[in-house]
Amino acid sequence: MILDGQDSHAIERAALALRAGELVAFPTETVYGLGADAASDEATRGIFRAKGRPSDHPLIVHLPDRLRQAESLSRFAQPLPPFARALADAFWPGPLTLIATRQPGVGAAAAGGQDTIGLRCPDHPVAQALLHACARHGVPGLAGPSANRFGRVSPTTAAHVAGEFGDDLLIVDGGPCTVGIESTIVDCSRGAPVLLRPGVITRAQIERVAGERLRSQAELAQPDPRASGTLESHYAPTAKVRLMDGRMLQSALDVLGAQAAHIAVWSRTPLKSRSQRLILRRMPDDAAEAARQLFALLRQFDDEGAKLIWIETPPETAEWEGVRDRLMRAAA
Ligand code: TXA
Ligand code: MG
């Protein structure tokens, strides 16, 4: 059932359902999340069941902003190191997840049993209205992975979520997500920042604010982080995705000529085809706009019956790292 996120009664209803241990999908600026009371291991286990996600893959805990934030943060995590505090101050609310040392005895299910926990304060008015309503009812944070089944494309509208989980799930509608790809994840639990997942906040922005160089996973010996967003094959639509440069795309279309069918193409380079049955879409030149469109477009190509999705390889620049990462995993 889809609830209107602008309606305060709907927010209250969703918060009460969460307090009762139910699952509720909610909008964020990045993608929709599948939420449960993060302080309740019982409620949180429902997420793993619904998603078909292995229970040792940790979830992100979403926190309210402003006054409530410090209270919720200290419930789940030990005090952040100064560089992590600086990142939270600069980018929260926003599309940044920090991995911190977990407060023992809380959020074990959300953390997938690890002694660290992922935390994020989303920049979406409906998410914040829900998180504040939850806090008033004694729910300090919402464990929430992307609201899709394991390994599939993240949802960026309420309708996508309903398509994944059906009509029984309570879904708070906050409109289409404006960022469109998942948050940047920085592990802050190992003495220096480590980038676990690129997003729209770039490496350079993180290093400037943290006052520290981002270390590679290999540089800081670590236990297995079990980040499903970092599995090689992920974010996959049903159709087969391939990345090619503009010239290769054009020659492939020339070879197929009028026969090209069940193929969807997303490219910045203008392309020509003699086929009437080709699905041809223009990739924006702006990385942020491309991120916003990406997941909805992959779903749309599936719906339009594409068997193959050919995408022009994005530029090798910093702004495109998040989109490049998702496309490489979709193609893996
Ligand atoms: O933008 C986002 O981050 C969205 C919205 C809903 O907030 N959430 C999201 O959640 O993408 P999910 O579960 O699909 O991806 C969370 C990622 C996973 O790759 C998970 O393994 C990693 O965060 N993660 C969470 N806690 C972790 C921890 N303690 N250590 C290492 N990785 C962690
Ligand atoms: Mg996900």
Automatic annotation (TrEMBL):
Belongs to the SUA5 family. It comes from Pseudacidovorax intermedius. One of its GO terms (biological process) is tRNA processing. Residues 8-201 form the YrdC-like domain. ATP binds at R53, T116, S146, S154, R197, Y235. L-threonine binds at T30, H62, R120, S183. Gene3D superfamilies: DHBP synthase (3.90.870.10), Threonylcarbamoyl-AMP synthase, C-terminal domain (3.40.50.11030). It is found in: Cytoplasm. It is an enzyme of class 2 (transferase). Its main location: cytoplasm. Keywords: ATP-binding, Cytoplasm, Nucleotide-binding, Nucleotidyltransferase, Transferase, tRNA processing. One of its GO terms (cellular component) is cytoplasm. It catalyses: L-threonine + hydrogencarbonate + ATP = L-threonylcarbamoyladenylate + diphosphate + H2O. It holds the Pfam family Sua5_yciO_yrdC. Required for the formation of a threonylcarbamoyl group on adenosine at position 37 (t(6)A37) in tRNAs that read codons beginning with adenine. This is Threonylcarbamoyl-AMP synthase. GO terms for molecular function: ATP binding; double-stranded RNA binding; L-threonylcarbamoyladenylate synthase; tRNA binding.
